[in-house]
Predict the 3D structure of the following.
Amino acid sequence: MPYHRIRPLLFSPVKFKILQKLKKEIVVSGEEIAKSVKISRSGVWKWIKALRKEGYVIKGSTKKGYFFAGSPDRLFPEEIYKPKMRRFGKNIYFFKKVSSTMDIAKELAQKKVPEGTIVIAEKQLSGRGRLGREWVSPPGGIYFSVILYPKIPLMDVPLINLMASTVVAESIKELYKLKPRTKWPNDVLIGEKKVCGILIELACEPDRIKWVVLGIGINANTDRRFINKIENSTSIKLELKKKISVVELFNSVLEKLNREYRQLNHGRFRKILSKWKNLSSTLKKRVKIITPEGEIKGTAIDVSTRGALLVKLKDNKIKEVYAGDCIHLKKVGRAY
Amino acid sequence: MPYHRIRPLLFSPVKFKILQKLKKEIVVSGEEIAKSVKISRSGVWKWIKALRKEGYVIKGSTKKGYFFAGSPDRLFPEEIYKPKMRRFGKNIYFFKKVSSTMDIAKELAQKKVPEGTIVIAEKQLSGRGRLGREWVSPPGGIYFSVILYPKIPLMDVPLINLMASTVVAESIKELYKLKPRTKWPNDVLIGEKKVCGILIELACEPDRIKWVVLGIGINANTDRRFINKIENSTSIKLELKKKISVVELFNSVLEKLNREYRQLNHGRFRKILSKWKNLSSTLKKRVKIITPEGEIKGTAIDVSTRGALLVKLKDNKIKEVYAGDCIHLKKVGRAY
């Protein structure tokens, strides 16, 4: 496995405490840091050097005292660590680059790591999308996978897709006042352009889910030159015409995921379904859906309580579509 | 992995040819075997010794000629090898004992071995049933797993359960004139006692099955002293009061699986569904089903085209049950 050669960065309690201290105080001496974190003063100096190398802007010196002048806005475990959250953000595997966060997360799931373990990468060398397709992962994007052990029936797995896209859309809406829309089954659009894709892989028996790996890719600060290469895509940076904080966006998504997943896992899916519907770009549209069983054309009128798309066909029959590639054709005048 | 220390027996073309020659001729000299199989005469002698050690009864000597007087009725790859079948029985991993055929088959599936690859064991040290339960695997039983890459929708996976139980029931019926019945979702009964259990594990995305491992355990020649330890069980030997040929039974099951799976994979599931219904012990019975979503009580009236059990509840509503533990309560007078 190639990634074994690329070591993940795991959460460092010392780094976390030093950063906390630096971010809290206006000026702090090396001695104060050493005392509060319980390491030697030369240890502090080594950490400051390492932090600067990672992109943290730390002004001053041991004698004059240090002050924090800026973070590199990178998704280091210490930036996204959430000790208070029940599930998500306690175990984090951060990679500067990696083959695919999905592959690593699946191996970790097999090994039964705790629920909510996150694999995050700044760059994926062979990122994957649905159906084994490539997911282009240029710098500036957020690419991560979360390991879940949901207690829901197998048939309800599509709800995880809807939950994840709702959460990402809500975060983008709240933080940037953009108008993101959810697309069935698992995208987030701005306008009709894709800003986020979601991928689910799972292992199961017909009546028991063993694990689910939820993968999320967000075009956050992705530059125009990369976006232009991907059909029908956009990035938040492109829409806003300015860079965003990936740490802020990631933390918002993670917090919402933590909350909504707990609801879903307790069988309370109505709220998330109604949120998805309110954000939906697919409903009330003419759609073409390519499924393993064939092509379906009709009007998307609703989603079922299991996350299936209800499509009204030519003959007015309603077809329940569980999965497939969905192509938006045109908006129809009214809901059915 | 412990089983790496236990090497599988793979198909040996030389052993296959020697056995074919021995089984076809009344008496055959070492020289004739050597010539036809294209090995040395001392090679023939070594093979004869090895075959005798495995339990083959081969009378005579190189000089007088050999004659075949009986096989050990063990599921060696050469006994079940099916060169003519499209899928099943071309790649066989045979273990005298193994942790669990499921575990090995799943590892092989990850490695994308050809469809229809079979893992078979005479004894499982930690055989598994549904929901991670133990599957007791005493000697005399048939325990195997088959690797499949079906092109059916995820929702149709329960049909594989119904197909497998139908196939086993049909083989038992044809070969031994017993009256096996299928039990929803994945058992075969004789009377109300279990003679076969089926297990499915899979890896997938919501709209693509990556692989399915189908596990089948049949109480074939299992002795009373073992059967008595398992609640509500029986074996074919116990029912017939005589030993059966496990090779004959296995080959019958495999041939039917090969045929029915091809049908299922082409979307032709009506025939297998109707066969399952005809053999069903569950339909027309009062049932209690324990599912991850709760307990359901009612009368089993039909199965859906996706293999879900249709249960008529107290209030006459029909509930579609996709998976769960099914307990037969009592027969009701009439079908609904």
User: Anything to note?
Assistant: Chain B touches chain A at residues 130-132, 151-155, 157-158, 161, 185, 199-208, 210, 267, 291-293, 322-324 (CB under 8 Å).
